[in-house]
Backbone:
């Protein structure tokens, strides 16, 4: 029973390691493109107007 649990634990750690590795890879690889895309999105007129309205909103409404 103990061996089976140990084997199960190792398998689960190996399976969980794959998504974590992919997340780290994407974070390293995709940070600059994502940052540029969000910058372009912020300059898009409808989003820019929404941000401006939110910026000018009174503190209690935020």
Residues:
């Amino acid at each position: 029973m103990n061996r089976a649990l140990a084997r199960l634990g190792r398998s689960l750690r190996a399976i969980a390691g794959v998504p974590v590795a992919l997340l780290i890879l994407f974070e390293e690889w995709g940070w600059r493109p994502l940052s540029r895309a969000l910058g372009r999105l912020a300059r898009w007129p409808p989003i820019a107007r929404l941000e401006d309205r939110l910026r000018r909103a009174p503190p209690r409404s935020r």
Summary: The radius of gyration is 22 Å. Residues 41 and 47 are 7 Å apart (CA to CA). Residues 2-57 form one domain.
